[in-house]
Amino acid sequence: MFPRIGLEVHVELNTKSKMFCPCPVGEWEEPNVAVCPICLAHPGSLPVPNRTAVIFAVSLGLALKGEISRVSHFYRKNYFYPDLPKGYQITQYSVPIVRNAWILGKRIERINLEEETAKSLHLEDGTVLLDFNRAGIPLLEIVFAPEISLPEEAKEVLRALQSAVRYLGISNADMEKGQFRVDVNVSISASRETFGTKVEIKNLNSFRAIADAIEYEIKRQSEIIMGGGKVVQETRMWNGKETEPMRTKETESDYRYFPEPDIPPLLVDESTIEEAKVLIKEMPWEKEERYISLGVPKNLAKIIAYDLELSQTFDSLRGVNPKRWAEYLVNVIVGRLNQKGKTLRDFDVWGFGKLLEKVEKGEILEEYLKVAVQKNIFEGVPFERLIEEAPKPVEIDLESLVDELVKNNPQQVEKYKKGQKGVVGFFVGQIMKDLRGKVDPKVVSDVVVKKLEES
Ligand code: ZN
Ligand code: MN
Questions:
Q1: What is the structure's pLDDT at 252?
Q2: What's the rounded Cα separation, in Å, for the pair 420 and 12?
């Protein structure tokens, strides 16, 4: 049995104005303030495509090695819903602006440029309020080929996509704000060549929920099929534990797509391509590879590379050991900042860098780094002062320390001579008791073995 996972993502673009009108895009406290006859769908108003939105779509297409359509078309997708009073959404159909793009080896069939609907707010008494500030915000509809088979893979490509649009600067892609919305469908087929019955899953508002819901659905459908049953084509809702049938039974809608008569074919010319290219810098997966080649452990390289702010912070410090810097950044600094309710923007990276340099030169002990970060974040002590106050490493005469220890513990030495190599640990432990963080246990161990052999 072959599970097939299909993903469809809607990404809100952070252009200055809406897709087909000059209304500003932004966050408003008041509803229905960023509106005009075009996004309110008044009869006779004429939509004009937003050039920046086109550039943004092309930049994602190019960054994901997709085919850019030099000519594409807008269509009307007809359906009625209170948040769409004009009765249709302007989207793309026959020829999308981008086809066959790739992300982490997974194929994206098409990227459509379209418009956002209004936002509906359902009150407890059944009243529905509509806010048209959102209506007409440019959207990218990104449709993956149903070629993903593992829940974790789905999560990975979605994370990569979210990271990619942030890197390009074309969307904030905040899931909680609905700027990055994912629809998932799951089917199970008998062979790679055939297709099973698709089940759509709604209400997925985190990557964890997406992976969990897919996993649950694959299991549920497998059990039905193994039990000789048939999977019903339906829309189900994820409730945090399982998928359940949605009460509203969705009928197969006929959207009666037809070409939008008010907008001429969309042309992507050389200058649009050039402007789109400017937005493309090092992409997260490229960054990940670079970090790994610098010696950053794989898991840390991924964490840093896929987070725009983390990677910018990481890149801002050069000339220090990348592995150590990555470890402190992810495992110490970010954690402490979170505890204190702060972000990386509140952190003095440059000051920490100075301290790290001194550690690497051997002028300050590494164990002081954690103490310093703690004091800096929790007590606001500047790194400059922390560097001044840092205890200096002492010269340690390891050889004579071990000599003395060997002399004072004849029974342990006897044991060693009888073949109990484990007593090395005893001697190392004794030394480290006083010198933890000041000497390398590996070095101590070497000296201990040497002295025991000589004795
Ligand atoms: Zn408008
Ligand atoms: Mn759509």
A1: 56
A2: 67
| Residue of 268, 323, 276, 351 lying closest to 71 (CA atoms) | 268
Shortest-distance ligand to the CA of residue 135: 1
Three-point CA angle 253, 257, 259, nearest 5°: 170
What span, in angstroms and rounded, lies between the C-alpha atoms of 137 and 22?
A: 10
In which region does residue 203 sit, left (phi positive, over 0), alpha (psi from -120 to 50) or beta (all else)?
left
Set out the domains of the chain in order of their start, with CATH numbers: 2-277 (no CATH), 282-389 (no CATH), 398-454 (1.10.10.410)
Average pLDDT, the chain: 93
Neighbours of 244 (CB within 10 A): 11
Nearest to 322 by CA among 301, 343, 305: 301
Distance (Å, rounded) from C-alpha 277 to C-alpha 291?
A: 24
Exposed/middle/buried for 74, CB within 10 Å: 0-12, 13-18, 19+? Answer: buried
Mean pLDDT of 411-430: 90
Statement: residue 395 has pLDDT above 80 = no
Ligand nearest to the CA of 11: 2
- Nearest residue to 210 (alpha-carbon basis) of 250, 170, 169, 180: 180
341 in helix, strand or coil? Answer: coil
- The bound ligand whose nearest atom lies closest to the alpha carbon of 46 is 1
Please give all residues whose CB falls under 5 A of ion ligand 1, grouped by chain where several chains appear. Answer: 21, 23, 36, 38-39
pTM to 2 decimals? 0.85
Q: Which ligand is nearest to the CA of 92?
A: 2
Q: How far is the CA of 50 from the centre of ligand 1 (A)?
A: 12
Distance 212 CA to ligand 2 centre (A): 24
Tokens of 201: 């899953």
DSSP secondary structure letters along 246-294: -SS---------EE-TTSPPEE--HHHHHHHHHH--S-HHHHHHHHHHT
CA 118 to ligand 1 centroid distance, Å:
11
Measured from the alpha carbon of residue 21, the closest ligand is: 1
222 CA distance to ligand 1 centroid (A)? 48
Q: N- to C-terminal Cα distance for the chain?
A: 67
φ, ψ for residue 171, nearest 5 deg: -155, 150
